[in-house]
Specification:
This is Lipopolysaccharide biosynthesis protein. With about 550 residues, this protein is of the alpha/beta class. It has helices at about 1-25, 25-45, 80-85, 90-100, 105-110, 130-185, 185-215, 240-265, 270-280, 300-305, 310-320, 325-330, 345-360, 375-380, 425-430, 435-440, 460-470, 485-495; strands at about 50-60, 110-115, 120-125, 220-225, 280-285, 330-335, 360-365, 390, 405-410, 415-420, 450-455, 470-475, 500-505.
Length: about 550
Protein backbone atom coordinates (compact mmCIF):
# COMPACT_ATOMS: atom_id res chain seq x y z
CA UNK A 1 0.00 0.00 0.00
CA UNK A 2 2.81 2.40 0.86
CA UNK A 3 4.49 1.57 -2.43
CA UNK A 4 1.29 2.47 -4.28
CA UNK A 5 1.06 5.76 -2.40
CA UNK A 6 4.66 6.51 -3.25
CA UNK A 7 4.05 5.77 -6.90
CA UNK A 8 1.00 8.03 -6.89
CA UNK A 9 3.03 10.77 -5.26
CA UNK A 10 5.78 10.41 -7.84
CA UNK A 11 3.23 10.62 -10.65
CA UNK A 12 1.77 13.78 -9.14
CA UNK A 13 5.25 15.27 -8.87
CA UNK A 14 5.99 14.38 -12.49
CA UNK A 15 2.76 16.00 -13.66
CA UNK A 16 3.40 19.10 -11.55
CA UNK A 17 6.94 19.33 -12.89
CA UNK A 18 5.73 18.94 -16.47
CA UNK A 19 3.13 21.67 -16.00
CA UNK A 20 5.83 24.00 -14.68
CA UNK A 21 7.98 23.27 -17.71
CA UNK A 22 5.10 23.84 -20.13
CA UNK A 23 4.28 27.20 -18.57
CA UNK A 24 7.89 28.28 -19.10
CA UNK A 25 7.30 28.44 -22.86
CA UNK A 26 5.65 31.82 -22.51
CA UNK A 27 6.38 32.87 -26.08
CA UNK A 28 4.59 29.88 -27.58
CA UNK A 29 1.59 30.35 -25.30
CA UNK A 30 1.52 34.10 -26.07
CA UNK A 31 1.78 33.35 -29.80
CA UNK A 32 -1.15 30.91 -29.58
CA UNK A 33 -3.21 33.49 -27.68
CA UNK A 34 -2.43 36.14 -30.29
CA UNK A 35 -3.39 33.80 -33.15
CA UNK A 36 -6.66 32.96 -31.39
CA UNK A 37 -7.53 36.62 -30.83
CA UNK A 38 -6.74 37.54 -34.43
CA UNK A 39 -8.78 34.60 -35.71
CA UNK A 40 -11.75 35.49 -33.51
CA UNK A 41 -11.65 39.13 -34.60
CA UNK A 42 -11.39 38.11 -38.26
CA UNK A 43 -14.37 35.75 -38.04
CA UNK A 44 -16.42 38.37 -36.24
CA UNK A 45 -15.53 41.42 -38.34
CA UNK A 46 -14.30 40.01 -41.63
CA UNK A 47 -17.05 37.47 -42.30
CA UNK A 48 -20.27 38.30 -44.20
CA UNK A 49 -23.17 39.33 -41.95
CA UNK A 50 -26.23 37.12 -42.00
CA UNK A 51 -29.73 37.99 -40.78
CA UNK A 52 -32.31 35.53 -39.49
CA UNK A 53 -36.06 36.12 -39.28
CA UNK A 54 -38.54 33.71 -37.75
CA UNK A 55 -42.27 33.22 -37.56
CA UNK A 56 -44.37 30.97 -35.36
CA UNK A 57 -47.50 29.09 -36.41
CA UNK A 58 -49.90 27.09 -34.25
CA UNK A 59 -51.31 24.23 -36.33
CA UNK A 60 -54.96 23.28 -35.88
CA UNK A 61 -57.24 20.67 -37.40
CA UNK A 62 -60.47 21.36 -39.33
CA UNK A 63 -63.47 21.27 -36.96
CA UNK A 64 -67.19 22.04 -37.08
CA UNK A 65 -67.34 23.69 -33.65
CA UNK A 66 -63.96 24.55 -32.01
CA UNK A 67 -65.84 25.66 -28.88
CA UNK A 68 -67.76 22.40 -28.40
CA UNK A 69 -67.07 20.35 -25.28
CA UNK A 70 -64.29 17.82 -25.87
CA UNK A 71 -62.97 19.55 -29.00
CA UNK A 72 -59.12 19.47 -29.07
CA UNK A 73 -56.85 21.34 -31.51
CA UNK A 74 -54.53 18.34 -31.93
CA UNK A 75 -57.26 16.02 -33.18
CA UNK A 76 -55.92 14.21 -36.20
CA UNK A 77 -52.62 16.16 -36.30
CA UNK A 78 -49.20 14.48 -36.54
CA UNK A 79 -46.83 17.37 -35.83
CA UNK A 80 -43.81 15.49 -37.15
CA UNK A 81 -45.54 14.96 -40.48
CA UNK A 82 -46.55 18.61 -40.54
CA UNK A 83 -42.94 19.65 -40.02
CA UNK A 84 -41.82 17.55 -42.98
CA UNK A 85 -44.67 18.95 -45.03
CA UNK A 86 -43.58 22.50 -44.22
CA UNK A 87 -40.12 21.71 -45.61
CA UNK A 88 -41.46 20.04 -48.77
CA UNK A 89 -40.62 21.12 -52.29
CA UNK A 90 -44.21 22.12 -53.08
CA UNK A 91 -44.24 24.65 -50.22
CA UNK A 92 -40.84 25.97 -51.31
CA UNK A 93 -41.99 26.33 -54.93
CA UNK A 94 -45.03 28.38 -53.94
CA UNK A 95 -42.93 30.59 -51.67
CA UNK A 96 -40.28 31.01 -54.38
CA UNK A 97 -42.92 32.25 -56.84
CA UNK A 98 -44.15 34.75 -54.28
CA UNK A 99 -40.73 36.29 -53.62
CA UNK A 100 -39.31 35.57 -57.09
CA UNK A 101 -36.29 33.63 -55.86
CA UNK A 102 -34.81 30.25 -56.88
CA UNK A 103 -36.35 27.28 -55.12
CA UNK A 104 -32.96 25.84 -54.12
CA UNK A 105 -31.93 29.11 -52.50
CA UNK A 106 -35.05 29.26 -50.38
CA UNK A 107 -34.84 25.60 -49.40
CA UNK A 108 -31.24 26.17 -48.27
CA UNK A 109 -32.18 29.09 -46.04
CA UNK A 110 -35.23 27.49 -44.36
CA UNK A 111 -35.23 25.73 -41.03
CA UNK A 112 -38.41 24.42 -39.35
CA UNK A 113 -38.42 23.36 -35.70
CA UNK A 114 -41.09 22.18 -33.27
CA UNK A 115 -40.85 22.99 -29.56
CA UNK A 116 -41.47 19.84 -27.51
CA UNK A 117 -45.05 18.98 -26.52
CA UNK A 118 -46.61 21.73 -28.65
CA UNK A 119 -48.49 22.09 -31.95
CA UNK A 120 -46.27 25.02 -32.86
CA UNK A 121 -43.99 25.20 -35.90
CA UNK A 122 -41.19 27.77 -35.90
CA UNK A 123 -40.03 28.86 -39.35
CA UNK A 124 -36.55 30.45 -39.54
CA UNK A 125 -35.00 31.87 -42.69
CA UNK A 126 -31.45 33.24 -43.07
CA UNK A 127 -30.46 35.79 -45.72
CA UNK A 128 -27.80 38.36 -46.43
CA UNK A 129 -30.11 41.22 -45.37
CA UNK A 130 -32.94 41.53 -42.90
CA UNK A 131 -35.72 42.44 -45.37
CA UNK A 132 -35.17 39.36 -47.50
CA UNK A 133 -35.09 37.15 -44.41
CA UNK A 134 -38.44 38.55 -43.17
CA UNK A 135 -40.06 38.37 -46.62
CA UNK A 136 -38.89 34.82 -47.23
CA UNK A 137 -40.00 33.45 -43.85
CA UNK A 138 -43.45 35.05 -44.26
CA UNK A 139 -43.72 33.62 -47.76
CA UNK A 140 -42.91 30.16 -46.40
CA UNK A 141 -45.46 30.57 -43.62
CA UNK A 142 -48.25 31.68 -46.00
CA UNK A 143 -47.34 28.98 -48.52
CA UNK A 144 -47.53 26.29 -45.85
CA UNK A 145 -50.87 27.49 -44.46
CA UNK A 146 -52.39 27.98 -47.91
CA UNK A 147 -51.22 24.57 -48.98
CA UNK A 148 -52.62 22.95 -45.88
CA UNK A 149 -55.99 24.73 -46.25
CA UNK A 150 -56.13 23.82 -49.92
CA UNK A 151 -55.50 20.19 -49.11
CA UNK A 152 -58.25 20.24 -46.47
CA UNK A 153 -60.78 21.82 -48.88
CA UNK A 154 -59.92 19.28 -51.56
CA UNK A 155 -60.51 16.46 -49.12
CA UNK A 156 -63.89 17.91 -48.12
CA UNK A 157 -64.95 18.24 -51.76
CA UNK A 158 -64.07 14.64 -52.43
CA UNK A 159 -66.01 13.45 -49.39
CA UNK A 160 -69.05 15.59 -50.26
CA UNK A 161 -69.01 14.22 -53.81
CA UNK A 162 -68.87 10.69 -52.44
CA UNK A 163 -71.87 11.31 -50.18
CA UNK A 164 -73.73 12.99 -53.01
CA UNK A 165 -73.15 10.03 -55.28
CA UNK A 166 -74.76 7.84 -52.62
CA UNK A 167 -77.61 10.29 -52.05
CA UNK A 168 -78.78 10.83 -55.64
CA UNK A 169 -79.90 7.16 -56.27
CA UNK A 170 -81.70 7.13 -52.93
CA UNK A 171 -83.58 10.35 -53.74
CA UNK A 172 -84.55 8.96 -57.13
CA UNK A 173 -85.75 5.70 -55.57
CA UNK A 174 -87.78 7.63 -52.99
CA UNK A 175 -89.48 9.68 -55.67
CA UNK A 176 -90.39 6.50 -57.50
CA UNK A 177 -91.90 5.02 -54.31
CA UNK A 178 -93.97 8.15 -53.81
CA UNK A 179 -95.36 7.79 -57.33
CA UNK A 180 -96.21 4.14 -56.69
CA UNK A 181 -97.97 5.02 -53.42
CA UNK A 182 -100.08 7.62 -55.19
CA UNK A 183 -101.08 5.14 -57.91
CA UNK A 184 -101.85 2.11 -55.67
CA UNK A 185 -105.19 1.62 -53.91
CA UNK A 186 -104.37 -1.60 -52.15
CA UNK A 187 -103.82 -0.73 -48.51
CA UNK A 188 -101.51 -3.64 -47.87
CA UNK A 189 -99.21 -2.73 -50.74
CA UNK A 190 -99.31 0.91 -49.70
CA UNK A 191 -98.17 -0.02 -46.19
CA UNK A 192 -95.23 -1.97 -47.57
CA UNK A 193 -94.22 0.91 -49.85
CA UNK A 194 -94.53 3.41 -47.03
CA UNK A 195 -92.25 1.25 -44.87
CA UNK A 196 -89.57 1.14 -47.60
CA UNK A 197 -89.99 4.82 -48.23
CA UNK A 198 -89.42 5.53 -44.51
CA UNK A 199 -86.15 3.61 -44.52
CA UNK A 200 -85.00 5.48 -47.61
CA UNK A 201 -85.92 8.78 -46.04
CA UNK A 202 -83.87 7.90 -42.94
CA UNK A 203 -80.81 7.10 -45.06
CA UNK A 204 -81.29 10.25 -47.15
CA UNK A 205 -81.51 12.32 -44.00
CA UNK A 206 -78.27 10.79 -42.69
CA UNK A 207 -76.41 11.49 -45.91
CA UNK A 208 -77.69 15.06 -46.03
CA UNK A 209 -76.48 15.51 -42.44
CA UNK A 210 -72.99 14.23 -43.35
CA UNK A 211 -72.83 16.54 -46.33
CA UNK A 212 -73.97 19.49 -44.29
CA UNK A 213 -71.42 18.67 -41.60
CA UNK A 214 -68.56 18.59 -44.11
CA UNK A 215 -69.66 21.85 -45.70
CA UNK A 216 -69.85 23.46 -42.27
CA UNK A 217 -66.24 22.53 -41.29
CA UNK A 218 -63.84 25.38 -40.37
CA UNK A 219 -60.88 24.74 -42.67
CA UNK A 220 -58.54 27.30 -41.09
CA UNK A 221 -55.15 25.43 -41.13
CA UNK A 222 -53.54 27.32 -38.29
CA UNK A 223 -52.86 30.62 -36.62
CA UNK A 224 -49.81 32.82 -37.14
CA UNK A 225 -48.72 33.57 -33.58
CA UNK A 226 -45.68 35.63 -34.55
CA UNK A 227 -45.08 36.86 -38.11
CA UNK A 228 -41.60 37.36 -39.46
CA UNK A 229 -40.13 40.83 -38.84
CA UNK A 230 -36.98 42.52 -40.08
CA UNK A 231 -34.17 41.68 -37.58
CA UNK A 232 -32.36 44.61 -36.01
CA UNK A 233 -28.88 43.01 -35.90
CA UNK A 234 -27.09 40.18 -37.71
CA UNK A 235 -27.06 36.72 -36.24
CA UNK A 236 -24.05 34.89 -34.82
CA UNK A 237 -21.83 35.61 -31.83
CA UNK A 238 -20.67 39.17 -31.36
CA UNK A 239 -17.12 40.47 -31.19
CA UNK A 240 -16.67 39.99 -27.41
CA UNK A 241 -17.81 36.37 -27.56
CA UNK A 242 -15.65 35.61 -30.60
CA UNK A 243 -12.64 37.21 -28.90
CA UNK A 244 -13.28 35.11 -25.81
CA UNK A 245 -13.59 31.91 -27.84
CA UNK A 246 -10.52 32.85 -29.86
CA UNK A 247 -8.54 33.48 -26.68
CA UNK A 248 -9.57 30.12 -25.23
CA UNK A 249 -8.73 28.25 -28.44
CA UNK A 250 -5.47 30.19 -28.80
CA UNK A 251 -4.34 29.36 -25.27
CA UNK A 252 -5.19 25.70 -25.89
CA UNK A 253 -3.13 25.75 -29.10
CA UNK A 254 -0.27 27.50 -27.32
CA UNK A 255 -0.28 24.95 -24.52
CA UNK A 256 -0.36 22.12 -27.08
CA UNK A 257 2.59 23.65 -28.94
CA UNK A 258 4.47 24.11 -25.66
CA UNK A 259 3.75 20.50 -24.68
CA UNK A 260 4.99 19.23 -28.06
CA UNK A 261 8.09 21.43 -27.73
CA UNK A 262 8.67 19.99 -24.27
CA UNK A 263 8.16 16.38 -25.42
CA UNK A 264 10.56 16.67 -28.34
CA UNK A 265 13.12 18.82 -26.50
CA UNK A 266 16.16 16.59 -25.87
CA UNK A 267 17.42 18.81 -23.04
CA UNK A 268 16.47 18.35 -19.40
CA UNK A 269 14.15 21.14 -18.48
CA UNK A 270 14.25 20.78 -14.70
CA UNK A 271 16.31 19.51 -11.81
CA UNK A 272 13.93 16.55 -11.54
CA UNK A 273 14.78 15.40 -15.06
CA UNK A 274 18.50 15.73 -14.32
CA UNK A 275 18.02 13.65 -11.17
CA UNK A 276 16.18 10.92 -13.07
CA UNK A 277 18.76 10.87 -15.88
CA UNK A 278 21.77 10.75 -13.54
CA UNK A 279 20.11 8.60 -10.85
CA UNK A 280 21.75 10.98 -8.37
CA UNK A 281 20.59 14.11 -6.55
CA UNK A 282 21.17 17.67 -7.65
CA UNK A 283 23.66 19.00 -5.11
CA UNK A 284 23.12 22.65 -5.98
CA UNK A 285 22.40 25.21 -8.67
CA UNK A 286 24.92 27.97 -9.25
CA UNK A 287 23.52 31.44 -9.90
CA UNK A 288 23.53 32.41 -13.59
CA UNK A 289 26.48 34.51 -14.64
CA UNK A 290 28.32 33.79 -11.40
CA UNK A 291 25.53 35.33 -9.41
CA UNK A 292 26.60 38.80 -10.51
CA UNK A 293 24.03 41.34 -11.57
CA UNK A 294 24.15 41.88 -15.30
CA UNK A 295 25.80 38.52 -16.03
CA UNK A 296 29.46 38.35 -16.95
CA UNK A 297 31.95 35.50 -16.66
CA UNK A 298 31.86 33.42 -13.50
CA UNK A 299 34.89 34.06 -11.19
CA UNK A 300 37.18 31.08 -10.70
CA UNK A 301 37.31 31.59 -6.94
CA UNK A 302 34.09 33.01 -5.52
CA UNK A 303 35.81 34.27 -2.39
CA UNK A 304 38.02 36.58 -4.46
CA UNK A 305 35.03 38.57 -5.69
CA UNK A 306 32.09 38.05 -3.42
CA UNK A 307 31.00 36.30 -0.26
CA UNK A 308 27.32 36.20 -1.08
CA UNK A 309 25.00 33.85 -2.88
CA UNK A 310 27.55 32.06 -5.07
CA UNK A 311 29.98 31.39 -2.20
CA UNK A 312 27.12 30.18 0.00
CA UNK A 313 25.98 27.80 -2.72
CA UNK A 314 29.47 26.28 -2.91
CA UNK A 315 29.53 25.89 0.89
CA UNK A 316 26.13 24.16 0.78
CA UNK A 317 27.38 21.73 -1.88
CA UNK A 318 30.48 20.96 0.18
CA UNK A 319 28.38 20.27 3.28
CA UNK A 320 26.08 17.95 1.34
CA UNK A 321 29.08 16.03 0.04
CA UNK A 322 30.69 15.81 3.46
CA UNK A 323 27.54 14.17 4.82
CA UNK A 324 27.35 11.65 1.97
CA UNK A 325 28.38 8.27 3.39
CA UNK A 326 29.99 7.13 0.14
CA UNK A 327 32.15 10.24 -0.09
CA UNK A 328 32.97 10.27 3.64
CA UNK A 329 34.52 6.79 3.36
CA UNK A 330 36.98 7.66 0.56
CA UNK A 331 37.08 11.50 0.50
CA UNK A 332 38.03 11.50 -3.18
CA UNK A 333 36.08 13.62 -5.61
CA UNK A 334 36.25 13.81 -9.41
CA UNK A 335 34.70 16.94 -10.96
CA UNK A 336 33.84 16.76 -14.66
CA UNK A 337 31.50 18.15 -17.29
CA UNK A 338 29.73 16.08 -19.97
CA UNK A 339 30.91 18.05 -23.02
CA UNK A 340 32.39 21.37 -24.04
CA UNK A 341 35.05 23.10 -21.99
CA UNK A 342 35.93 22.56 -18.33
CA UNK A 343 35.61 26.24 -17.37
CA UNK A 344 32.69 25.77 -14.99
CA UNK A 345 33.98 22.43 -13.71
CA UNK A 346 37.30 24.16 -12.87
CA UNK A 347 35.43 26.83 -10.88
CA UNK A 348 33.44 24.15 -9.03
CA UNK A 349 36.57 22.15 -8.22
CA UNK A 350 38.44 25.23 -6.96
CA UNK A 351 35.56 26.49 -4.82
CA UNK A 352 34.80 23.06 -3.38
CA UNK A 353 38.46 22.79 -2.38
CA UNK A 354 38.23 26.20 -0.74
CA UNK A 355 35.00 25.21 1.04
CA UNK A 356 36.57 22.00 2.35
CA UNK A 357 39.57 24.05 3.57
CA UNK A 358 37.18 26.42 5.34
CA UNK A 359 35.61 23.39 7.06
CA UNK A 360 39.03 22.57 8.53
CA UNK A 361 40.01 19.81 6.16
CA UNK A 362 43.36 19.51 4.42
CA UNK A 363 42.23 19.94 0.82
CA UNK A 364 44.31 18.94 -2.20
CA UNK A 365 43.19 19.99 -5.68
CA UNK A 366 44.66 17.88 -8.48
CA UNK A 367 44.44 19.30 -11.98
CA UNK A 368 44.21 16.13 -14.05
CA UNK A 369 43.46 18.08 -17.22
CA UNK A 370 46.79 17.42 -18.95
CA UNK A 371 45.62 18.78 -22.30
CA UNK A 372 44.77 22.39 -21.44
CA UNK A 373 46.17 23.04 -17.94
CA UNK A 374 45.54 26.58 -16.69
CA UNK A 375 44.83 26.61 -12.93
CA UNK A 376 48.33 27.58 -11.85
CA UNK A 377 48.16 30.71 -14.00
CA UNK A 378 44.68 31.67 -12.82
CA UNK A 379 44.99 31.10 -9.05
CA UNK A 380 46.79 33.35 -6.61
CA UNK A 381 49.56 31.59 -4.61
CA UNK A 382 49.61 32.02 -0.86
CA UNK A 383 51.69 34.97 0.34
CA UNK A 384 54.93 34.03 2.08
CA UNK A 385 54.80 30.46 0.79
CA UNK A 386 57.02 28.96 -1.80
CA UNK A 387 56.29 25.81 -3.79
CA UNK A 388 57.19 22.69 -1.87
CA UNK A 389 57.53 19.03 -2.75
CA UNK A 390 54.99 16.31 -2.45
CA UNK A 391 55.23 13.67 0.25
CA UNK A 392 56.30 11.17 -2.42
CA UNK A 393 58.72 13.15 -4.60
CA UNK A 394 59.54 12.02 -8.09
CA UNK A 395 58.19 12.74 -11.50
CA UNK A 396 55.65 10.54 -13.19
CA UNK A 397 55.13 9.76 -16.83
CA UNK A 398 56.04 12.79 -18.94
CA UNK A 399 56.82 14.87 -15.86
CA UNK A 400 53.36 14.67 -14.22
CA UNK A 401 52.79 14.70 -11.37
CA UNK A 402 56.07 16.50 -10.78
CA UNK A 403 55.70 16.47 -7.01
CA UNK A 404 55.00 20.19 -7.06
CA UNK A 405 52.26 21.47 -4.76
CA UNK A 406 51.26 25.13 -4.86
CA UNK A 407 49.53 26.55 -1.78
CA UNK A 408 46.53 28.59 -2.97
CA UNK A 409 45.40 31.49 -0.82
CA UNK A 410 41.62 31.82 -0.45
CA UNK A 411 41.77 34.83 1.81
CA UNK A 412 40.04 34.58 5.15
CA UNK A 413 38.77 31.10 4.31
CA UNK A 414 42.21 29.49 4.52
CA UNK A 415 44.24 27.78 1.82
CA UNK A 416 44.49 24.50 -0.07
CA UNK A 417 47.19 22.82 -2.10
CA UNK A 418 47.14 22.61 -5.87
CA UNK A 419 48.88 20.00 -7.97
CA UNK A 420 48.92 21.79 -11.33
CA UNK A 421 48.58 19.96 -14.58
CA UNK A 422 51.00 20.09 -17.42
CA UNK A 423 51.11 18.90 -20.99
CA UNK A 424 52.40 15.34 -21.39
CA UNK A 425 52.91 13.24 -24.52
CA UNK A 426 50.87 10.30 -23.20
CA UNK A 427 47.94 11.41 -21.08
CA UNK A 428 46.48 7.97 -20.39
CA UNK A 429 49.80 6.58 -19.12
CA UNK A 430 50.37 9.63 -16.90
CA UNK A 431 46.92 9.37 -15.31
CA UNK A 432 47.30 5.65 -14.58
CA UNK A 433 50.90 5.81 -13.38
CA UNK A 434 51.97 4.76 -9.90
CA UNK A 435 52.92 8.33 -8.94
CA UNK A 436 49.38 9.50 -9.82
CA UNK A 437 47.93 6.66 -7.75
CA UNK A 438 50.03 7.65 -4.73
CA UNK A 439 48.88 11.26 -5.20
CA UNK A 440 45.19 10.26 -5.11
CA UNK A 441 45.89 8.03 -2.10
CA UNK A 442 46.67 11.10 0.01
CA UNK A 443 42.96 11.18 0.80
CA UNK A 444 43.54 8.10 2.98
CA UNK A 445 45.08 10.38 5.62
CA UNK A 446 42.55 11.54 8.24
CA UNK A 447 41.06 14.96 7.57
CA UNK A 448 42.29 15.05 3.95
CA UNK A 449 40.12 15.61 0.88
CA UNK A 450 41.36 15.17 -2.70
CA UNK A 451 39.45 17.00 -5.45
CA UNK A 452 40.41 16.01 -9.00
CA UNK A 453 39.56 18.08 -12.07
CA UNK A 454 39.35 16.12 -15.34
CA UNK A 455 38.40 17.00 -18.94
CA UNK A 456 34.80 16.43 -20.13
CA UNK A 457 33.70 12.80 -20.02
CA UNK A 458 32.24 12.62 -23.52
CA UNK A 459 35.14 14.50 -25.12
CA UNK A 460 38.04 12.50 -23.68
CA UNK A 461 38.48 9.19 -21.89
CA UNK A 462 40.63 10.80 -19.14
CA UNK A 463 37.79 10.92 -16.58
CA UNK A 464 37.01 7.24 -17.16
CA UNK A 465 40.63 6.35 -16.48
CA UNK A 466 40.33 8.11 -13.10
CA UNK A 467 36.85 6.89 -12.13
CA UNK A 468 38.00 3.63 -10.49
CA UNK A 469 40.74 5.47 -8.50
CA UNK A 470 38.68 8.45 -7.37
CA UNK A 471 35.31 6.67 -7.14
CA UNK A 472 32.98 9.61 -6.40
CA UNK A 473 32.09 11.79 -9.40
CA UNK A 474 30.35 15.18 -9.45
CA UNK A 475 28.97 16.15 -12.87
CA UNK A 476 28.73 19.86 -13.68
CA UNK A 477 26.32 20.82 -16.45
CA UNK A 478 23.99 23.49 -17.79
CA UNK A 479 20.55 21.92 -18.37
CA UNK A 480 20.01 24.27 -21.31
CA UNK A 481 23.19 23.05 -23.01
CA UNK A 482 23.20 19.30 -22.42
CA UNK A 483 20.97 16.47 -23.60
CA UNK A 484 19.26 13.90 -21.43
CA UNK A 485 20.88 11.11 -23.40
CA UNK A 486 24.31 12.65 -22.68
CA UNK A 487 23.62 12.58 -18.94
CA UNK A 488 22.46 8.96 -19.12
CA UNK A 489 25.56 8.04 -21.09
CA UNK A 490 27.85 9.79 -18.57
CA UNK A 491 26.24 7.85 -15.74
CA UNK A 492 26.60 4.55 -17.60
CA UNK A 493 30.25 5.25 -18.52
CA UNK A 494 31.16 6.21 -14.96
CA UNK A 495 29.44 3.13 -13.56
CA UNK A 496 31.12 0.93 -16.17
CA UNK A 497 34.53 2.37 -15.24
CA UNK A 498 34.06 1.43 -11.58
CA UNK A 499 32.94 4.77 -10.14
CA UNK A 500 29.63 6.24 -9.07
CA UNK A 501 27.95 9.61 -9.47
CA UNK A 502 27.59 11.47 -6.16
CA UNK A 503 25.44 14.20 -7.62
CA UNK A 504 25.09 16.99 -10.13
CA UNK A 505 25.88 20.69 -9.93
CA UNK A 506 23.75 22.81 -12.27
CA UNK A 507 24.60 26.24 -13.61
CA UNK A 508 22.95 28.68 -15.94
CA UNK A 509 25.16 30.36 -18.49
CA UNK A 510 24.15 33.95 -19.29
CA UNK A 511 22.62 34.34 -22.76
CA UNK A 512 24.59 36.22 -25.39
CA UNK A 513 23.01 39.49 -26.66
CA UNK A 514 20.26 38.81 -29.18
CA UNK A 515 20.28 35.09 -28.45
CA UNK A 516 17.85 33.09 -26.35
CA UNK A 517 19.49 31.03 -23.63
CA UNK A 518 17.11 28.18 -24.43
CA UNK A 519 18.65 27.64 -27.87
CA UNK A 520 21.34 24.95 -27.54
CA UNK A 521 24.88 25.67 -28.61
CA UNK A 522 26.68 23.14 -30.75
CA UNK A 523 29.01 20.90 -28.87
CA UNK A 524 32.62 21.65 -29.55
CA UNK A 525 31.91 25.07 -31.05
CA UNK A 526 29.73 28.15 -31.01
CA UNK A 527 29.63 30.66 -28.21
CA UNK A 528 31.69 29.89 -25.12
CA UNK A 529 31.93 31.74 -21.86
CA UNK A 530 35.05 33.83 -21.47
CA UNK A 531 37.65 32.41 -19.08
CA UNK A 532 37.67 33.81 -15.57
CA UNK A 533 41.19 35.17 -16.05
CA UNK A 534 39.80 37.66 -18.56
CA UNK A 535 38.09 39.46 -15.69
CA UNK A 536 41.43 39.95 -13.84
CA UNK A 537 43.95 42.37 -15.42
CA UNK A 538 46.89 40.93 -13.47
CA UNK A 539 46.46 37.62 -15.23
CA UNK A 540 45.60 38.95 -18.70
CA UNK A 541 48.94 37.90 -20.11
CA UNK A 542 48.62 34.33 -18.87
CA UNK A 543 45.99 32.94 -21.20
CA UNK A 544 45.53 29.16 -21.52
CA UNK A 545 46.85 27.66 -24.75
CA UNK A 546 44.48 26.78 -27.57
CA UNK A 547 42.37 23.65 -27.22
CA UNK A 548 43.74 20.82 -29.38
CA UNK A 549 41.56 18.73 -31.65
CA UNK A 550 39.25 16.50 -29.62
CA UNK A 551 38.42 12.87 -30.10
CA UNK A 552 35.03 12.09 -28.54
CA UNK A 553 34.64 8.97 -26.48
CA UNK A 554 33.00 6.26 -28.60
Amino acid sequence: MSGELLDDGEEVDLVRDQVRQIVRYKRLIAAGLLVGLVGGAYLSLGGADTYAASSTVMVRAATADPFAAGATPDKGIDIGTERQSAMSTSVAETAAKAVKQPVAKLQHCLQVTNPPNTLVLRFTCTASNGRDAAAWVNAFTRSYLDGRESATRTTIKKMVKGYQDQLDPLVKQRNELLDQIDQTSDSQVVGTLVSVQTNLLSRITELNGDISGLRALDTTPGTVIKPGTVPDAPTGPGLPLMLGLGAAVGIALGLLAAWLRLVFDPRPRSAGEVTRAMDAPVLGTLPGGGGRRGGGPQPLLAGDHMAGRLAEEYRAIAFRLSHDQRFAERRRLLVVEPRGSSATAAAVAVNLSASFAEMGKEALLVEADLRTPSLSARLRPAEGHRPGWARNPGQGEGGWPAGLQLPVDTGEYGSFDLVPGRRVPNVARALTSGQAGRLFAEADDPGTVVVVLAPPVLSYADALALADRVDGVVVVCDPAEVRREDLVRVRELVAGAGGFVLGTVLHRAPAAPGRSRFLPRRYGGGHRAAPASAARPDHAARVAPAVPERHPVP
